[in-house]
Amino acid sequence: MKKDLPILDLHGVYYVEVENTLSNFFFWDDHKEGIIITGNSYDMRKLVTEWLEGYDFLYYIEPHNQGRIIVK
Q1: What is the pLDDT of residue 62?
Q2: Domains of the chain and any CATH numbers
């Protein structure tokens, strides 16, 4: 049985709240992987990927849906 990945939807989250939101999701809520919905905002995607790289998370951005980042 395939386990669904937890989803973090950043729609409506201000840029200044992104780091805390990601920290809560991955560290406080203890998710090791998940799907991050950024929408089509390049700036949001950049903030998220820089944070993920800073904490050595492995991720990829789906080529057919640039608004989703998969963290594995």
Answers
A1: 87
A2: 7-71 (3.30.1370)
